[in-house]
Amino acid sequence: MIDVERIKQNIDCRDLIERDLGKPKYRSNKYSTYKCPLHNEEKGYSFGVYGDPWVCFGKCGHGGDAISWLIEWHNLSFQEACERLSSGDLPKLQQPIHTSKNRVSVLSEPPDLEWRSRAEEIVKQAEVNLWGEQGTRALHYLKEQRGLTEATILEPRLGYIQGDYREWKTLSGLIVPCGVTIPWYADQMLWGVKVRRAAGQQRYQQVSGGNIKGCPYLADTIQPGLPLMITEGDLIR
Ligand SMILES: [Zn+2]
């Protein structure tokens, strides 16, 4: 069993990320900022790095802990990232992949089994929360403001993590934003969990370590020969 908390105690995201990105544009005693390297930001410095977590407040909205940084930037698996961090054998700096505009396309593969079972726990708990007492307001929001029916809430297994929109919880060893959870299934596997927060510049965040790139939401429901309607928002059904 990987002890995620223990690994993270010994690592400061600011040091880890400075190693990959170089000197930050701005540094206070709490956080550092950069141009976001994940969406090749041109104007502004939306990428904020705290001791834990790091987060892009701009276009891509990615964020997470030290482990998810290694997964995202160095294309490691969850397990590899944990091993690298605990042994201190960090991956070599790899400039070319992310610095130019022609980024190498990321493989469409679901996260590993360990991540999936951890995230599955979170999805289950969030479902229980949504239909329980603490989910009253969130459920009301989904039905009344977004116009979803109980069936369209149940079927895709929407859920709820209670907490302030600025809060990030550690559940089953993963970093979880608070809000309405939207599990991302394809090929009968969980690829990621999006979270729609109640407020904040970037409403949609993700549970750390997911990989939903190249994976259309609810792709399994697409059937050959039947009409397909594609909408812009995950909550529009
Ligand atoms: Zn970004």
TrEMBL record:
<protein>
    <recommendedName>
        <fullName>Zinc finger CHC2-type domain-containing protein</fullName>
    </recommendedName>
</protein>
<keyword id="KW-0862">Zinc</keyword>
<dbReference type="GO" id="GO:0006269">
    <property type="term" value="P:DNA replication, synthesis of primer"/>
</dbReference>
<dbReference type="InterPro" id="IPR050219">
    <property type="entry name" value="DnaG_primase"/>
</dbReference>
<dbReference type="Pfam" id="PF01807">
    <property type="entry name" value="Zn_ribbon_DnaG"/>
</dbReference>
<keyword id="KW-0863">Zinc-finger</keyword>
<dbReference type="GO" id="GO:0003899">
    <property type="term" value="F:DNA-directed RNA polymerase activity"/>
</dbReference>
<dbReference type="InterPro" id="IPR002694">
    <property type="entry name" value="Znf_CHC2"/>
</dbReference>
<keyword id="KW-0479">Metal-binding</keyword>
<dbReference type="GO" id="GO:0008270">
    <property type="term" value="F:zinc ion binding"/>
</dbReference>
<dbReference type="GO" id="GO:0003677">
    <property type="term" value="F:DNA binding"/>
</dbReference>
<feature type="domain" description="Zinc finger CHC2-type">
    <location>
        <begin position="34"/>
        <end position="86"/>
    </location>
</feature>
<dbReference type="GO" id="GO:0005737">
    <property type="term" value="C:cytoplasm"/>
</dbReference>
<dbReference type="InterPro" id="IPR036977">
    <property type="entry name" value="DNA_primase_Znf_CHC2"/>
</dbReference>
